[in-house]
Amino acid sequence: MHPATLEITQQPEHNGSLVARLKGKLSLETVNGFLQQTRAYSADKLVLDMSGVSYLDSAGVGALVQLFVHRRNQTKKMAVAALTTQGAAVLQVAGLTKLLPVFATVEDASV
Fold it and tell me: In the chain, which residues have pLDDT < 50?
């Protein structure tokens, strides 16, 4: 079995928002790297493009919440966009669709 990986690439800014595209698994094995990399982003608004996330578990959800709170404490914004069906279901079950700004597309989130 291959170790879980998560690749994060910064896209060109879109309407003043930094877009970070995630590809791979946002899970227990990858959350530390995810938080280290995304907490370093200084843009006023961060949009996480989740379209490439093949698997999201409770640790990944926890990391999203940690990042959201971290950015809110710095008066910065964060949005989650383009969730897969599995990712959307996990956030729904966790009851986080009311806390985290979730958008259908990166374009919607970047407005």
Answer: none
